[in-house]
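pls read this stuff:
=====
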Amino acid sequence: MVKAMVVKGAGAGMGKQKLTCEEICASFDPPIEFGSHKDMVGSKKGYQAEHIVPTSAFHEMGRSGDRVTNCSGYTTPNALTWMARDGQSADQEHKILTDQMREFSQANDLAGREATLNQWLDEYEEGAKNALKNADPKRKIKNKKLDEDSLIDAAAECIRARAAESFAQMKPPVKGDTKLRNPWAATAEQRAAAAPPPRAPSGGRGGRR
């Protein structure tokens, strides 16, 4: 069960409120809604059933087929999603999240590492904050007595927590220390930029007389 979160009030002297994740997600207009991909896809016009951690990170290739080690309980249709505003154009929730996940994957690939599920969830939480704060158009806040930034931070934490619960409930569960695939490889330009500069030729006159 996801614990209650403390959310600041809007303005001086408004204090703090302890809210459940259900109350936090319902404080947005439209509300943040969760469900399996198979149940949520196509359920809301203009929104995408967004996997919490890219589904391709759990598969050897693409979004289906063989799964990476220790992810046999994961399936794309049954994995948890939330409804993010659709579109791969600038400033849409879905685009902001996709860009952040791509950059994380490429940074991992460039460093020659495979991040764990927990590390992907940490990054996704930051991506959710970014999407909820900076999307255009952004979701409205129903309860004007709540501080917007504090509410968004709590909502992103709730998204992460709901996902962590869902991974723990898979059969068999996908554990937090499970290493996932990098779905996006580093580009040639990124590799070139990260490469060490060529060594300068050694000095001296060279050769024997």
